[in-house]
Write a structure and sequence with these properties.
- This protein is of the alpha+beta class.
- It is 59% helix and 10% strand.
- Strand 1, helix 5 and strand 2 form a beta-alpha-beta unit.
- The protein starts with a helix and ends with a helix.
């Protein structure tokens, strides 16, 4: 399902469908058609709220009022590291989520409305921006659609970091859609690692490889997570694949040692 969702060019890629495809692998009897219909219905309602205006500030204000004031979508600050915050179906059901999942919802509606909105993967935080001729409007879905200037964006990163930063204006560039999906998945992976759930983390890594099949590091990490689950032969298989892909990697010697230790454990257990 995820393979199909990302198997198109950048312009055609629907982040809403792809994010739901990510979630589908983690739920039994996932109602993909139902959730897609909900996105379509939200976009239809949003179109009515926006009306005929094409003025960027009015479009953004109408979309913000619909999503955050009327429907009550908001950032989950109380339970930030709950895995549910990373799944778009849960965001639709509970109307709360992470910066990146709320941004994906925003972008999914924009895709259906054909609005020039793009994701912005800043360090430590994720927002969206509306690009109009001679104008960019930065929007923070996690904070109720607050509209930001570039200086506000820098201040937000410093607020999250808790210290001054060297601000690179390039971090406000539009983020490609597959990179958005990869970042969403990496967030979820880190959450499962914090919860010491290597099996779930490993399944997320497999999805990361669908989005970024040339990521050698994810092949290695899948192998290491198999070892954590005591699935030794599978771990060795994936680590061997990593060495075949990246024989000169800086950690190649360490990975070979991990393979040898895994085989010794496998022999002792059998």
């Amino acid at each position: 399902m995820l393979t199909q969702a990302v198997g198109c060019d950048e312009a055609a890629l629907d982040l809403g469908r792809a994010a739901l495809a990510i979630a589908a692998a983690h739920y039994v009897d996932f109602d993909m058609a139902g959730y897609l219909a909900r996105l379509d219905a939200l976009a239809k309602e949003a179109r009515q709220r926006i009306g005929r205006t094409r003025r960027p500030l009015r479009v953004v204000s109408a979309l913000n009022a619909f999503l955050f004031d009327e429907l009550g979508f908001h950032g989950n600050r109380e339970d930030y590291y709950n895995p549910a915050n990373s799944f778009l179906n849960e965001v639709l059901d509970r109307r709360t989520g992470l910066p990146i999942t709320l941004s994906v919802l925003y972008l999914a509606l924009a895709h259906r409305l054909r609005l020039p909105l793009y994701g912005v993967g800043m360090p430590l935080h994720f927002i969206v921006k509306y690009i109009a001729p001679g104008q960019e409007i930065f929007i923070d879905p996690f904070y109720g659609g607050e509209m930001l200037t570039p200086e506000d964006c820098r201040a937000r990163i410093e607020q999250i970091a808790g210290q001054p930063i060297v601000f690179d204006p390039a971090c406000l560039n539009a983020t490609p859609k597959r990179r958005i999906l990869y970042r969403l998945l990496n967030n979820l992976k880190q959450i499962y690692l914090r919860r010491e759930e290597p099996g779930r983390a490993g399944r997320v890594v497999e999805q990361m490889l669908i989005v970024a099949p040339d990521s050698h590091a994810d092949v290695r990490d899948r192998g290491l997570l198999f070892l954590q689950e005591n699935a030794l032969s599978r771990g060795v298989e994936w680590l061997t694949r990593y060495l075949e892909r990246a024989p000169e990697a800086p950690d190649a010697a360490w990975v070979r040692s991990a393979i040898n230790h895994a085989w010794m454990r496998h022999v002792r257990q059998n």
